[in-house]
Every structure is written in structure tokens, then in C-alpha cells.
Specification:
5 strands, binds zinc ion, five-stranded antiparallel sheet, Muramoyl-pentapeptide Carboxypeptidase, domain 2, 84 residues, alpha+beta
Length: 84
């Protein structure tokens, strides 16, 4: 999470780390995933270059689970999920 700020210059709003409403076995409950609903002042709402850019940055930093409007519009229309 720090690398997204330090090396990628992202500002983002974290809406969940552990807890919240996630399925059993979710990486969230191991503290290994977080959800973001705003990136660089842009609210996530459907697919966008901002959303895809943040998702790519997570992958580049080794995330093994990356969801957002572009690959899971039903579950992640309004937020991005990155898990390690
Ligand atoms: Zn999530």
C-alpha cells in the first residue's frame, strides 16, 4: 500500500482492509487485500483509465488478486480490489 504512494505517486481512499462484508476465505481476513473507491480524487464508478492504471500498478507490485470494473463489473463496479 505504501509503494503505491511512494513509488507510483497515487493518492487513494481505502474503504476496507480486513473486516467489512467479504466472502469466507477472502484475502481481506488475512489483512492481505484492500479495497479502494477513490483514486487521485476520482471516484471509481465503472471502467476508466484511472481504474485500469491503479489495477496495473497493483499487478506490477505483485498483487495476485486484482478486481475492478474492467474485469468484474458485477462485483467491483464502484471499487477496486488488490490482494497479495
Ligand atoms: Zn476487496
Amino acid at each position: 500500500m505504501k509503494n503505491l504512494i511512494a513509488s507510483r505517486n497515487y493518492r487513494y481512499f481505502v474503504m476496507a482492509i480486513s473486516g467489512a462484508d467479504h466472502s469466507a476465505g477472502s484475502l481481506h481476513f488475512q489483512g492481505r487485500a484492500f479495497d479502494v473507491d477513490e483514486v487521485n480524487g476520482v471516484r471509481i464508478s465503472g471502467d476508466s483509465a484511472t481504474a485500469r492504471g491503479f489495477m496495473d500498478a497493483c499487478r506490477a507490485l505483485g498483487a495476485i488478486e486484482v478486481f475492478g470494473p474492467s474485469n468484474d463489473p458485477a462485483g467491483h463496479y464502484d471499487h477496486l480490489h488488490c490482494g497479495w
